[in-house]
Specification:
The chain is an alpha+beta fold. The protein is about 20% helix and about 35% strand. The protein has 3 helices and 9 strands, in the order βββββαβββαβα. The strands form 2 sheets. Strands 1, 2, 3, 4, 5, 6 and 7 form a 7-stranded antiparallel beta sheet that branches. Helix 2 packs across helix 3. The radius of gyration is 16 Å and the shape is globular.
Length: about 170
């Protein structure tokens, strides 16, 4: 496995809610990005020299883009703050090959996905796979505080949350 960084372009930056932005990253060279599994994250190297990890929230079947959600932390040491304030559509970033610490066990028959706030990002990709690839029965509980109202979320997040709501299968 190569540790080489991949250059990506910010194709889309959207403010999803107060202190929450999503970024669609596409390959700068029009080559497919390295594949990933649901729950994966990438290292993003920022122009200020910092490297931070962000979970991929889009479908693992997509090789043409990586989508990340970034919460602007009030105690930011420069990572989330830089993405929110300094990075714009058209900017180039360096990202690592995806890694996964939240793999779906192969023998899983049912799943309960629980997340709070920005912690929902890896769960979105997992839920997409549970629904599309495995047709597994899963339930999801997501909590959002006043700073992240689900009703204000748009674009990628909105579509993913709607998809998750469709995944509910009561017994």
């Amino acid at each position: 496995m190569s540790d080489a960084l991949h250059t990506v372009v910010v194709a889309r930056k959207a403010i999803e809610a107060h202190n929450m932005a999503s970024f669609e990253l596409v390959p700068a060279d029009d080559q497919p990005l390295p594949g990933f599994t649901p729950g994966s994250h990438i290292d993003v190297t920022l122009p200020n020299g910092l490297t931070r990890q962000y979970s991929l929230l889009n479908s693992a079947s997509e090789r043409n883009r990586y989508c990340i959600g970034v919460w602007k932390d009030g105690n930011s040491r420069g990572g989330s703050k830089a993405l929110h304030l300094d990075i714009n559509e058209g900017d180039r970033l360096q990202v690592s090959r995806p890694r996964n610490r939240f793999k779906i066990p192969k023998d899983t028959k049912r799943a309960l996905l629980v997340a709070r706030g920005i912690g929902v990002t890896p769960i979105l990709s997992i839920a997409d796979t549970l629904k599309a690839a495995y047709a597994w029965n899963y339930r999801m509980a997501a909590a959002a505080g006043g700073a992240l109202p689900a009703a204000q979320m748009s674009s990628v997040m909105d579509k993913q949350i709607a998809m998750i709501a469709e995944g509910w299968k009561p017994r």
